[in-house]
Amino acid sequence: MHNVGCIGLGTMGTPMAWNIHRAGFRLGVYNRSAEKCSAFAREGIGVFASPAALAAWADIVIIMVFGPEALMEVLGGPDGAARSMAAGKTLINMSTVSREATLAAAEQVAACGASFLDAPVAGSKKPAEQGSLTILAGGSPDVLERVRPVLACMGRTIIHCGDAGAGTDMKLFINVLLGALMQSFAEALTLGTSFGLRVGDMLATVQSSAVACPLFSVKGTAIGSGDFEKNFPVELIFKDLDLALQAAGREHVPMPLTAAAREAFCAAMARGLADQDMCAVIRVLEEMTGRSVRDE
Ligand SMILES: NC(=O)c1ccc[n+]([C@@H]2O[C@H](COP(=O)([O-])OP(=O)(O)OC[C@H]3O[C@@H](n4cnc5c(N)ncnc54)[C@H](OP(=O)(O)O)[C@@H]3O)[C@@H](O)[C@H]2O)c1
User: Between vectors from CA 80 to CA 79 and to CA 85, what angle results, nearest 5°?
Assistant: First the structure.
């Protein structure tokens, strides 16, 4: 039986931690804003005052925070988890960060004699609640096998993508598609509305065509009913497209469509939509065109 410590109790980290608890592992938690730990404390779950204190207690430490800077803070900061990592312990980063941050984290953990796994996830709030995320693992196959029972509480599909860094690469790969598809869908729906087409008819057409996919079904329904409550918010897809474009620049891979999508999400951020679901990017187009993409 492992002691599993979870750092980061946001939209994703909270349900992931509950699933670890429900699977019977001994759970401990840390979050920068302490109030998000209260529900765990009420269930008798250990709440730790710092990532270092949590990592001293845990055999397996899972990090699920916003991005590269947050990862560096909870890992390498003055009270970071790295202070307590040692041989026999494993650190799993599940946050979406840059390849550079992943490799820097792997190096810091290895310097402590501990094991590291890169394991960002595909899937949003609902799959996190249902334990049906897709986990994109990078690292040694032995480490992956050792922690597989813990990962299996959170994800139904685990893909071993290669060495540390490959999970992060795969995550940016899939989110490039996600961001570009979302913006393209928002443009098509706005054009269709300007033609006078009904949203329900456009969604039915998409779903019976070659481009049918869960993204269009879920986001189309949300847009049609004006439900922009966040699952995967604008600020996260903006972060991920930004990370992908930085990597693409270094690799000399031109990505004009991704750059355009990044700018669309940037415009949504500028309109104060950072905390709304990524499908709220359509609200920028609605504002520009004076049209409302809704089912009456
Ligand atoms: N939401 C999704 O649908 C989804 C899907 C797949 C992957 N992801 C990825 O999963 C990760 C977490 O996403 P989320 O939706 O759970 O985000 P979130 O709800 O915004 O939560 C972010 C977490 O990071 C912590 N954090 C942020 N900056 C920090 C810092 N400087 N130091 C310490 N802690 C910090 C926050 O602490 P506070 O509570 O103190 O702010 C919070 O616990 C991100 O990398 C995201 O890209 C998200």
Answer: 120
Amino acid, single-letter form, for residue 14: T
Distance in angstroms (rounded) separating the CA atoms of residues 119 and 93: 6
Q: In whole angstroms, what is the distance from residue 280 CA to residue 237 CA?
A: 12
Q: Give the E-state strand segments of the chain in sequence order.
A: 3-7, 26-30, 46-47, 60-63, 90-93, 115-118, 121-122, 133-138, 155-162
**Mean pLDDT value across the chain:** 97
Cα–Cα distance measured from residue 226 to residue 229, given in angstroms and rounded to the nearest whole number = 9
Which residue in this structure is represented by tokens 């949590």?
54
Determine the distance separating the centroid of ligand 1 and the alpha carbon of 156, expressed in angstroms. Answer: 21
Write down the pTM of the prediction: 0.97
Angle, in degrees to the nearest 10, between helices 166-195 and 234-251: 120
Q: What is the pLDDT of residue 2?
A: 87
DSSP H stretches of helix in 23-124: 38-42, 51-57, 68-76, 99-111
Residue 108 Cβ contacting ligand 1 at under 6 Å: no
- The whole-number pLDDT of residue 167 equals 98
The answer to whether the Cα torsion of 275, 276, 281, 286 is positive or negative is: negative
Strand partners, 138: 118, 162
CA distance 10 to 6: 11
pLDDT at 1 over 80: no
* Closest-lying ligand 1 atom to the alpha carbon of residue 9: 43
Ligand 1 binding pocket includes 77 (Cβ within 6 Å): no
Q: What is the pLDDT of residues 26-35, one digit of tens each?
A: 999 999 999 9
| CATH numbers and ranges of domains, the chain | 3-163 (3.40.50.720), 169-289 (1.10.1040.10)
Using the atom order of ligand 1, give the atom closest to the CA of residue 120: 7
Report CA(172)–ligand 1 centroid distance (Å): 16
